[in-house]
Amino acid sequence: FDFWALTPRSDILVFFGIWLILPFVWRRLVIPASGAVAALVVALLISGGILTWAGFNDPQEINGTLSANATPAEAISPVADQDWPAYGRNQEGQRFSPLKQINADNVHNLKEAWVFRTGDVKQPNDPGEITNEVTPIKVGDTLYLCTAHQRLFALDAASGKEKWHYDPELKTNESFQHVTCRGVSYHEAKAETASPEVMADCPRRIILPVNDGRLIAINAENGKLCETFANKGVLNLQSNMPDTKP
């Protein structure tokens, strides 16, 4: 029983039921029925008991324990001037580039350098809302971007040529309100804190969220799954969730 789902459905009925069992009300009924009043009292008590129990038992709550051991925090790595490795460029989300080659005086002279087409278009089974809202990230000489169907592309930043791409083969279903991908994340492991297996398998990785609840870690160098992440590179975010359908 969900307290917040039950409460708005029972408030009027409960108050109306309490009003009906008041002596000065039910005694004036055309046909006094003590049995009906007793049944109403029982119903109110049961309703109150259910609401009380539901108030202390949340069906959406996932019980568990967290380790009390402290995990050493990694120092925030500085961002190279020419890089944009996160949505807001750095972990502070400052959205500021220190580069000065392009400025207010010469921006009007910019010309198109290259065009890349992902080939990702709306499919017959897609919901009504499908949008391209990605903010690409740049690490070194590579741009990383995802499409509406969460296809991940790695492009040469200078030429726009594709280095590799990864397709999670998303299958749309009725639970999707819309299909989009606003961006991916980049993580670079450090030998001081990462295991030797991680350093050997996938020290530089791209984290790709997928509409169906998967979180995928992909090697930033070659586009292969990071075997040391979750279940051979794929984490199911819907695991142990009580309800995954609308």
Task: Describe this structure as you would to a colleague.
The chain is α+β, with helices and mostly antiparallel strands and 246 residues long. The protein has four helices and ten strands. The mean pLDDT is 86. InterPro entries: PQQ_b-propeller_rpt, PQQ_rpt_dom, Quinoprotein_ADH-like_sf, Quinoprotein_DH_CS. Belongs to the bacterial PQQ dehydrogenase family. This is PQQ-binding-like beta-propeller repeat protein. One of its GO terms (cellular component) is outer membrane-bounded periplasmic space.
Strand content: 15-25%
* Count of extended strands: 10
CATH fold name of the largest domain: Thrombin, subunit H
Q: Portion of residues in helices?
A: 10-25%
Return the structural class: alpha+beta
Mean pLDDT, as a whole number? Answer: 86
Report the C-alpha radius of gyration, rounded.
Answer: 28 Å
Number of helices: 4
| Lateral arrangement of strands in the main beta sheet | 2-3-4-5
Highest-level CATH class of the largest domain: Mainly Beta
Overall outline: elongated
- Low-confidence regions: none
Secondary-structure element sequence?
HHHEEEEEEEHEEE
N- to C-terminal separation? 17 Å
Major sheet: size, sense and barrel closure? 4 strands, antiparallel
- CATH architectural group of the largest domain: Beta Barrel
Number of domains: 2
